[in-house]
């Protein structure tokens, strides 16, 4: 486990040099908000990171329901049974094993590691504009139909889940990067991802934090270049 800090944001990384899987701890006055739950064995590392920071985990938010983002959730909830879990209204269906599509959605199958043995269920369902502590929720479908990103209203640090990756080069979800193709393999709708990537740029983030790869300061130029590359591929 590797722990990095930037302002109120702490990046917790597992397998950093091989197959980086990130989750995040956001410091609030009353404790820490955990964003995503990494891999099944990650519980001890997440709890240790919180102890190092010196605050309790008081909330758990999920960017989406893929296995590498909910992996340790059952074990964390066993350790912290009273901590509420948040997920989008749409990805709550995937969390519950429902991979059906709505009529207005891109009619391609939902991809990636959909959890099959997850027991934990969300306590609170999120929609666009909801505020959790210092974090504002942004609907960013594409990687999954209900993917969400979050921006810290204090610092404009953006936690984008798999809407972007920085491992193997900055890329929009669905844009295949040969050095790290896995987010692309798990992306449901490339066209929807592109629209969400553009939406995130409009928030003018000062920091981009993603599920796979390093945090990126002053990321707008890199995000815009990633969008342009993906547009050219799709066209």
Strand order of the largest sheet: 1-2-3-4-5-6-7
CATH topology: Metallo-beta-lactamase, Chain A
Mean residue pLDDT: 97
Please estimate the helix content: 25-40%
Q: DSSP strand (E) fraction?
A: 25-35%
How many DSSP H or I helices?
7
Q: Give the SSE string.
A: EEEEHEHHEHEEEEEEEHHEEH
Q: Please, what is the CATH homologous superfamily?
A: Ribonuclease Z/Hydroxyacylglutathione hydrolase-like
Low-confidence stretches: none
Q: Whole-number radius of gyration? A: 16 Å
Question: At the first level of CATH, what is the class?
Answer: Alpha Beta
What is the CATH architecture term? Answer: 4-Layer Sandwich
Estimate nothing, just give the exact number of structural domains.
Answer: 1
Largest sheet: 7 strands, mixed
* Count of beta strands: 15
Can you summarize this structure?
Helices cover 26% and strands 26% of the residues.
Q: How would you portray this structure in words?
A:
This protein has 235 residues and is of the alpha/beta class. The chain has a single domain, classed as Ribonuclease Z/Hydroxyacylglutathione hydrolase-like (Metallo-beta-lactamase, Chain A). Helix content is 26%, strand content 26%. The protein has a seven-stranded mixed β-sheet with strand order 1-2-3-4-5-6-7. Helix 6 packs antiparallel against helix 7. The protein is globular and about 50 Å long. The termini are far apart. The model has no long low-confidence stretch (mean pLDDT 97).
């Amino acid at each position: 486990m590797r722990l990095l800090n930037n302002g109120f944001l702490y990046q917790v990384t597992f397998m950093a040099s091989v197959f980086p899987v990130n989750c995040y701890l956001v410091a609030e006055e009353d404790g820490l908000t955990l964003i995503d739950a990494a891999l099944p064995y990650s519980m001890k590392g997440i709890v240790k990171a919180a102890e190092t920071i010196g605050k309790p985990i008081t909330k758990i938010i999920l960017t989406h329901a893929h296995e590498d983002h909910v992996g340790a959730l059952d074990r964390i909830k066993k350790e912290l049974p009273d901590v509420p879990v948040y997920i989008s209204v749409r990805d709550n269906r995937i969390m519950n094993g429902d991979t059906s599509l709505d009529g207005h959605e891109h009619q391609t199958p939902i991809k990636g590691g959909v959890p099959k043995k997850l027991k934990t269920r969300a306590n609170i369902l999120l929609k666009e504009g909801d505020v959790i502590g210092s974090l504002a929720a942004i609907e960013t479908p594409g990687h999954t139909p209900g993917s969400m990103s979050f921006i810290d209203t204090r610092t404009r640090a953006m936690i984008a889940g798999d809407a972007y990756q920085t491992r193997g080069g900055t890329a929009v979800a669905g844009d295949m990067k040969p050095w790290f193709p896995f987010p692309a393999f798990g992306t449901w709708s490339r066209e929807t991802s592109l629209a969400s990537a553009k939406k995130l740029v409009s928030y003018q983030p000062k920091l981009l934090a993603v599920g796979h790869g390093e945090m990126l300061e002053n990321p707008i130029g890199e995000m815009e270049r990633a969008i342009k590359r993906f547009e050219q591929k799709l066209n």
